[in-house]
Amino acid sequence: MSTTAKHKIEVEAPQRTTVRVPAPRRSWDPPAAPVALSMVPPTTPRSRAARRLLVLVACLVLVPLVVVAAFDWRLSSALTRIDGAFDGLADRPPAAADGSVTMMMLATGEGTASSPVLAWMPGEPTVVSAMFVTISGDRRQVDVDWLPLRGRVLTGVADAAPSGSVAAAESWTGRRVDHLAIVDWSAFSALGRDNETRLVLPAGASRGAQQAFLREVLDDTLHAEMRKEPWTLYRALHTVAQGMAVEDGWSAFDMTRLMFSLRDLRSAQIVFGAIDEPQSGTSPTGR
Question: Distance between CA atoms of 154 and 147, rounded to whole angstroms?
Fold first, then answer.
């Protein structure tokens, strides 16, 4: 009997992989836990204090800037501007080496028949006095010198251009003019009213009457310590600015900075005088 060899072939069954598919969420299921995308470090007391300090520093820096900007805008809106105050001037005196600041100030008001008028200003106001103002380099003294409205000065003030007044002042005094200003006497009267001083300058008032008027107004205005009351300084500046015109290159910020440097000034440090004779032999026009 033949025997047939039988070979057994064993085949391993394939392994099964189980894939779990999450069941769809239902409306009554609780909310799923959020997946943390990043780890945010907890806030410490030191970091909170640092943030508060930064906010405080920002306020201390920004608030004064906003206040200064507001004051600058308000002052600028009150001022009238003079175009071409230094146009065409040549052979001018050198700038002061001691840091002093000079200004040709023309005061307008009710003059006489012979008083010059400013044809280049709106309304052609009448000039009742011409003053050369010098602020010392250390800001401890202000000299206000009256110039005579005759000769070179009268010719320059009556010129068809504002630069004629600047040229006349430089020719008469031999000193460089840094700024040109036109101030109506009513502005000084308003300054006096702010300080409960009731003064009126009569038409055609003499130089002595003008000086006495200004002296009383300044005595009442500069009585307070402006270092402790900066608002007093600004209010006085704004009151005068409402009746004032300055050259277009003199910014309200520079004006405020100059006036703030005079915050310790007292009326006794304002010296009134006169320059009745020419201090320079330059030409009447300087142009």
Answer: 9
Specify if 53 maps to a domain: no
Residue environment code for 83-101, b if the CB has 16+ CB neighbours within 10 A, otherwise e: eebbeebeebbeeeeeebb
- What digits encode the pLDDT tens for the residues 90-99? 889 999 999 9
The amino acid that residue 47 corresponds to is S
Q: Is residue 51 exposed (0-12), middle (13-18) or buried (19+ Cβ within 10 Å)?
A: exposed
Place of tokens 């039988």: 6
The kind and range of the H/E element at 212 are helix 207-221
- Greater confidence (243 vs 27) lies with 243
- Residue 167 one-letter amino acid: A
pLDDT of 216-235, one tens digit each? 888 777 765 555 666 666 77
DSSP string, 146-174: EE-SSHHHHHHHTSSSTHHHHHHHHHHHS
How many domains in the chain?
Answer: 1
Range of the domain at 104: 79-274
Q: Dump pLDDT digits (tens) for 24-45.
A: 666 666 666 555 545 555 656 6
2's tokens: 């033949």
221 assigned to some structural domain: yes
Distance separating alpha carbons of residues 183 and 243, to the nearest angstrom: 6
